[in-house]
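WARN retry 2 of 3 for item q-0093 after timeout on previous attempt; input resubmitted unchanged.
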Amino acid sequence: MRNVLIVVLVAVVVWFASVIVRLENYRYANSIGMCSEQLDLVQKDKCLNAQETRTGPLWHLAYALGLI
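OK item q-0093 returned
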């Protein structure tokens, strides 16, 4: 039972980390103006979701958690 709980908690932590990485990438792309201001909201959202602003997901996670 304890092993199942550990696996579930690890899965939740990995899922939370992936959400944090996605949101930090979106936030940073928006803050540095990677997508045109003339786009409507739907196009801008798609553009911001498609951007890769740092070299990898660990950098996003570290920045979002305040480690760097």
